[in-house]
Amino acid sequence: MLLRYFFSLKGRISANRYRAFLLWYLFAVLPIFTVLYFAFLVLGAVSKAGILRDASLTSAVVGSSVYCLGCFWPFIAATTRRMHDLGYRGRDYFFIVSPHKTWKLGKEILFKHGIIDENTHGSNPGMFE
Predict the structure, then answer these.
(1) Which of 3, 38, 51, 55 fits 59 for a cystine, CB–CB 3.0-4.6 Å?
(2) Could you give the CA distance from residue 29 to residue 51 in angstroms, rounded to a whole number?
(3) What does the pLDDT read at residue 27?
């Protein structure tokens, strides 16, 4: 069930499920991706047959891009779905530069209950908990 939150930007996610996802993501997924990435870097630097041994700049950039995409896409997707639950569109708030607005939005995403009725992004996810 949690794998759906990794890829889809459509739909809604409740505050409780979002907080559970964040715990699972921060303490399981992100460390695993980081350990694997650094293992590939170390194996590539030490062994003669390593993946990144004598790699060009392009392959290093591609490897780092895959790491960043694998780490940050699940977070972006789940946060967008949580914003949908609050009635916000994700693209309207993607580039907030004001610290006050960012802090306020972060508190709303973590603690505010979503819209009870169905909105343009789907039905109430709290009904199924």
Answers:
(1) 55
(2) 22
(3) 92
